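Lab notebook, page 48
Experiment: co-folding of the full assembly
Goal: obtain a model of how the components sit together before planning crosslinking
Operator: M.T.
Materials (sequences as entered):
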Amino acid sequence: MKTPADTGFAFPEWAYKPESSPGSRQIQLWHFILELLRKEEYHDVIAWQGDYGEFVIKDPDEVARLWGARKCKPQMNYDKLSRALRYYYNKRILHKTKGKRFTYKFNFNKLVLVNYPFIDMGSGRGVPQSAPPVPSGGTHFRFPPSTPSEVLSSTEELRSPGMFSSVGRRMARGSVSDCSDGTSTNSELEEAVGAEDRVGGPERAFRSLLPPRMPHESLFRVYGGAPNPGLPRPAPRVHPEPLSPFPISPLPGSGGLLAPTLSPALSMTPTPHLSYTPSPSMSSPMLGSHFSFNPEDMKHYLQAHTQSVYNYHLSPRAFLHYPNIVIPQPHRPTPEKPAAAHHLHGPPMPLSHSLSQQPGGGEEGHQHPSPFKFKLQPPPLGRKQREAGSSMAASSSSSSSQSSFTGSSQMTNSLLSRGPPNIKVEPISDIESEEDVEVTDISEEDEKNHNDENNEGSIFTPTAGHNNHHQLNNHHQANGNSSSPSAPLPQNNNPDDDPDDEVFKTPATPPIGGGGGLAFPLISLKSEPGSQAAPISPGGTRCIPLKLRFKRRWSKDQKMEADGERDEAEDKKVRAEGEEEAERRGSEVENGGGRGEGVILGLMLPPPPTQRRASSELQRATAQLSLENSGC
DNA sequence: GGCGGAACGT
DNA sequence: ACGTTCCGCC
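Observation: model returned without errors.
Model output:
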């Protein structure tokens, strides 16, 4: 559809659809809420509160007014707004914090991230409201290229300012407009937006992303940055000015960033998958093991996130650690993937230049889009059906599984590449779900649950558990030992995939491949095989061309997806039965369930090639995010 | 305050 | 799909 080919990413509908996407023409309530949350000016009316993703509407009437202004619905009031919010329960975008008035909580697990990798929700427990969205560094993010498609299609676009320009215009325009109604309340937001317009260099933006604070780092198993295990949070958060959150500020070029900082998105989300899984998605090709991720993949992935970040200027938390991720492999010596390994240690990839390098460095590379797919949330069931159920029975009637999407992570390349990427992974005992582990918690702690909720989880997770373990082992071996030559990862991989798969998978970018676009994958492939050989071994196992690996993985993924869908269906049923609570927790669930849906962000793989939307969408969405304000 | 159905609009 | 509006119920 939209831009088909080009893109590599597919997102969940709600998350990214153009319409739903943040920037989309018609802003969605949750995007709007997020927007308010990230602006200090509105902290008196709405702010992050205690738990991760939890926010409180301090002034319901004002929030409603602002929302009404944005939507040109002067009649808006909290009662109506809250109704809209309640619809998000089913979608799993939000849930109500019981017992607290006007307090809701985002289920970031699944969602967002993609779009808003950086959001910082309250920073977890620790930080109450503040959650500054801004990434550290003061860098402000910029919107991405105007449209995803563009981005995807042409690598250059990302870099080129021109892209932005278009966006900027839109934004600008948007800001101005008022509702015909006469209520022009939106001015405030809009102003902010306007500020955003300015476009800086995209590149900078990337760099800028940094790792802000990591609240829960500990939570995550892996964190990259070896360097900063705990970032002291120096001054990480810079709040942007109220009005203009994203000033132009150029980043510090050089330094910025830790280059490494990768996408936070992951981190934030509870969902593990992404977070960490960088690999998986990417990994598909490479490693299967838990963590495996190729540097390349990671890069791509990260890049993608980064972009998102920019786009959204969300907060950084997400990033946490990507910079160098080290994976400890307690048990098995082998690292994940061969390729990865060397990448990590060794030579920076070509791609890397973009982010990793310094500003002057040059062009960034290319961010080729690679399609990922993610599955996000499960589709909510319609209650209608339920009703129907009376007659029909709620059974599963409709299947609306939107859950999957793909995204591509184009950008990641650079991220990882930076130097020696070390990825640190915390010990994984668990296994199985890397994913689970990874993310976990962040937010959730509070909730206990675990249970089910996961409906979502259910979606994906099929059997991962068992398999995973098994697989994992394999992976490890593969990686480390290489003893198992044949199957190093890819094949079996299911393992990694699985979880990851669900999480995100990366296809090889087939579609894209052709030609025009660049598929990053391709690139990576080339690079790998190339000279650097895998450290691994003689055995050569790993040598498998990435392409093949991807392919294999892909296939699996697809299968997986299929499973996933089924799960969803089940999910729905379950829900129907009643699991409200579960649902609520669902979000949190991630911990446990992990894999489930979340997926998050982006990483999941793409399913059928056909589906994948392009990355373009992604970008588009991001770009639009900013636009949202404009509204009416 | 909060929930969720229903009709309706886009 | 995604609300918006209205409304009854707890």
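Interpretation: The first strand of chain A starts at residue 46 and ends at 48.
Next step: discuss with group before ordering constructs.
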